[in-house]
Amino acid sequence: MVLNPVLGKLVSKRVVLASASPRRQEILTNVGLRFEVVPSWFKETLEKSAFAAPYEYAVETAKQKALEVANRMHVKHLRTPDVVIGADTIVTVDEQILEKPVDKQDAYRMLSRLSGKEHSVFTGVAIIHCHSKDNHLETEITDFYEETKVKFSDLSEELLWEYIHSGEPMDKAGGYGIQALGGMLVEYVHGDFLNVVGFPLNHFCKKLAELYYPPPKHNVQHKKYDSIPSVDTFENLSDGESESSNFTEHKGASKLDSSGMCSSGAIYKSESSSSVRTGFIVPLENQNGVLKSAAKVPSKILDLMDGFRASKALFVASKLKMFDHLRAKGPLKAVDIANEVGTSVCGTERLLDACAALGLLEKTPQGYSNTDSANTYLTSDGEYSLHGYIIHSNDHLWPLFTNLESAVKEGSRQNHRAFGKKEEDLFKDYYQSQEVKQRFMAAMHSIAHLTARDVATAFDLSQFKSACDLGGCTGALAHELVQIYPNLKVTVFDLPEVIANTSYFQPSGQHTAPVTFVSGDFFKDNLPEADLYILSRVLHDWPDEKVHVLLSKISAVCKPGSALLVAEIVLDEQKTHPPRAVLQSLSMTEGKQRSGSEYKQLLEKYGFTDVQIKITGNLLDAVLGFKENLSP
Ligand SMILES: O=c1[nH]cc([C@@H]2O[C@H](COP(=O)(O)OP(=O)(O)OP(=O)(O)O)[C@@H](O)[C@H]2O)c(=O)[nH]1
Fold first, then answer.
1. Which residues does the UniProt record annotate as the domain O-methyltransferase dimerisation (predicted)?
2. Are residues 14 and 137 both part of a single domain?
3. Which atom belonging to ligand 1 lies closest to the Cα atom of 123?
């Protein structure tokens, strides 16, 4: 992907985000940057009147935040990071700088100033490259700022106070969060939206491009130190293009000693939207003075090499219910969590640091706490908990994938090696061992619940009066369907052993029509009557003979005009995308993943016409086919 090379330059470096802001962490995590979070202890107390322009204040604060972390890590923790990123967001209105409100009155004061007016949001960013030389910290600072203009509607007193009482303004510059409720106050935004949220990602990437992809040497030599050629876009950069991509020396960059003070005068020049504080990057020279290209970092391959460690860290933290403990009591120190879950302190600290590095946790001086994503997806009862599927991945899929080499050599599933049991015996476990059954149902429920809305709304199903979800397990999709289509009656049809265990998964306190559960075997028993049959995550698991039995039965009971909805991952025609589906195939079930045209052909073969496919962007896509209406 064209954007990768810029951030890819940071892959092999120890990158530290010197910020406690969950938004900044999320913005950078979302683009795949790997970093450690070490919030800065720098107090935002610089004298504002000492700065000629508000953005200079934000840039200087960002720089001091980052320097404090670089120094602390170097001196106290004896770990010199390679790159420290600091940021500071401020709002300016009527020549006043607004930071985070200290209390509700302060929030009121800020928001009423912003009401009905246009204001500016500035984020100052500092990127500090660190080197330890003779135990001495040397730093090279690049900084810049971005301005975005935001206009608020006129805000009534009632609205202002309602918003303030929501609690949202308190940790946000200017007293609002544009990404959440605060977005409702905004009439327009001119400029980078993410800059308002706390981190100007686009400008940051351009700055990295300037740093890591300097222009060819002949250009460099003819230019002055204090102006960096602007890189307007990073679209045409690739790992292969870098002739001298090592960030080795920045002439004119300010060098700081370990106290954080400038040790040499910086040659700075302000540009329209940035004050560039670095000189040019000199390519690496070998002993003979010959220029050599820096080794390219194969970031994708490195990520794949580390992937198993990351997965296992997630699995173990989930299995130990660390995310549950952190949600209930966080922030917690490693020792407290170790006591809660009965693990070693040193092991727990390493695991928690790994989770923070992976962006699953936040680490502050107060301890570790969950990110919003961890609360939503990783706690065992989070709104869209994936806990069940994670445990299934750890306990069932991991042992299978450990035997992938044998699976590929033999072309068959490796239950005997992974679990010491044959396929049939393992299958019995699913229905006879309460523990295995519940683990499996929880895993299915995780995915079904997460994907239910997108599957249910992939097509307009309001014409149907009754639906039957075959193999619908806990009823997660059924419940979503009755919420969206109140006139639809949904039956979940699954094996008796499954139906007997569904009560734990039922949503509480819903005022929608109930879902009916009927037990039976869809290969053998009569199917309940319905206008719409649903097969979600069923077809890919079964061999062609079984698929034939099932689709023939459905086709036979489907009246003209009724339909079949299939929810599966739909592969592209080359069958290499999305990777999730292709990787799932490695489990070597007897079934298979199919492309869009294969699903279309399959449904048509059993008398369904007008087959439509919807790629949802979620974990499951949807295919809908109508039983041919024989009468014209
Ligand atoms: O619309 C939004 N505007 C601003 C924010 C958040 O506001 C804060 C700004 O504060 P600051 O730059 O001082 O950063 P801190 O949160 O204190 O973290 P540091 O440790 O980096 O000092 C920032 O979190 C923005 O994300 C917002 O969310 N929406």
1. 302-380
2. yes
3. 12
Token pair of 256 as six digits:
């700081």
Q: Could you tell me if the CB of 98 is within 6 A of ligand 1?
A: no
Question: Which one of 89, 125, 185, 372 would you pick to mutate in the ligand 1 pocket, going by the greatest count of ligand atoms within 8 A of its CB?
Answer: 89
In short, whether 68's Cβ falls inside 6 Å of ligand 1 is no
Chain centroid, CA 87 distance in Å: 21
In a domain, 265, yes or no: yes
Question: Mind listing the pLDDT tens digit for each residue in 11-35?
Answer: 778 899 999 999 999 999 998 888 8
The ligand 1 atom nearest the CA atom of 39 = 20
CA 480 to centroid of ligand 1, rounded, Å = 36
State in Å: Cα 152 to ligand 1 middle. Answer: 19
Q: Hey, what amino acid is at 532?
A: L
Distance CA 147, CA 576 (A): 42
Q: Tell me which residue of 292, 166, 114 sits closest to 217, measured CA to CA.
A: 292
List the residue whose alpha carbon is closest to atom 24 of ligand 1.
Answer: 21
Ligand 1 centroid distance, CA of 198 (Å):
5
Distance 174 CA to ligand 1 centre (A): 9
CA-CA distance, 43 to 32, in Å (whole number)?
29
**Rounded distance between C-alpha atoms, residue 45 and residue 78, angstroms:** 27
Q: Is 197 left (phi over 0), alpha (psi -120 to 50) or beta?
A: alpha
Judge whether 88 counts as a catalytic residue. Answer: yes
- 249 & 310 share domain: no
- Across-strand partners of 490? 467
Number of domains in the chain: 3
pLDDT at 256 over 50: no
**Choosing from 82, 88, 106, 239, which is the catalytic residue?**
88
Q: How far is the CA of 4 from the centre of ligand 1 (A)?
A: 26
Q: Which helix (H) or strand (E) holds 436?
A: helix 434-456
Same domain, 197 and 340: no
Instruction: For the chain, state the CA radius of gyration.
Output: 29
Residues 149 and 191: beta-carbon distance below 8 Å: yes
d(CA 72, CA 78): 8
The type of residue at 453 is R
In ligand 1, the atom with minimum distance to the C-alpha of 100 is 10
Q: Which of 21, 44, 195, 362 to mutate to test the pocket of ligand 1 (most atoms within 8 A of CB)?
A: 21
ipTM above 0.95, yes or no: yes
Query: Is there a cis peptide before residue 528, judged by omega within 30 degrees of 0?
Result: no
Between 248 and 352, the more confident residue is: 352
Answer yes or no: is 584 within a domain: yes
- What percentage of residues in the chain have a pLDDT greater than 90? 67
Alpha-carbon gap, residue 626 to 463, rounded angstroms: 12
Which residues, 6 or more positions from 381, have their beta carbon under 8 angstroms from its beta carbon?
Answer: 324, 387
Domain extent at residue 456: 452-627
Distance 252 CA to ligand 1 centre (A): 31
101 Cβ below 6 A of ligand 1: no
Distance CA 564, CA 627 (A): 8
**Hey, which residues does 188 pair with through a beta bridge?**
151
Which pLDDT tens digit goes with each residue over 498-523? 999 998 898 876 656 689 999 999 99
CATH number at residue 313: 1.10.10.10
